[in-house]
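Hi support team,

I've been running sequence recovery on a batch of backbones for a student project. Most finish fine, but this one hangs at about 90% for roughly twenty minutes before it completes. I'm not sure whether the input is malformed or the queue is just slow. I've pasted the structure tokens below so you can try to reproduce it. Let me know if you need the job ID as well.

Thanks,
M.K.
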């Protein structure tokens, strides 16, 4: 009986640790150290850098190329990307 209680406690501790790690990672992506711009409409699913009208934090969009989702790109690059925009677009 003691072994099963110890296993349950270990599993609960591990689960709480994962929740804490995920909470610490929530929020916007850090601003890059290079000169950058926000490029809207090009982020892959789960790869946006900040919140949108329908998502609360980075990495949470479910549709690729969502018009209000953005990623940081080096300055001057967004206009060279197909579907890229410096302003949010209607999805």
């Amino acid at each position: 009986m003691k072994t099963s209680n110890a296993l349950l406690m270990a599993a609960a501790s591990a689960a709480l640790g994962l929740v804490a790690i995920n909470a610490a990672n929530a929020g916007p992506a850090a601003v890059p150290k290079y000169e950058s711009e926000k490029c809207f409409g090009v982020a892959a699913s789960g790869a946006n850098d900040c919140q949108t009208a329908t998502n609360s934090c980075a990495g949470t969009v479910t549709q690729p190329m969502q018009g209000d989702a953005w990623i940081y790109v080096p300055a001057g690059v967004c206009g060279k990307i197909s579907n890229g925009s410096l302003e949010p677009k209607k999805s």
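--
Follow-up from support: It reproduced on our side and the slowdown came from queue contention, not your input. Residues 2-25 form the longest helix (24 residues). No action needed from you.
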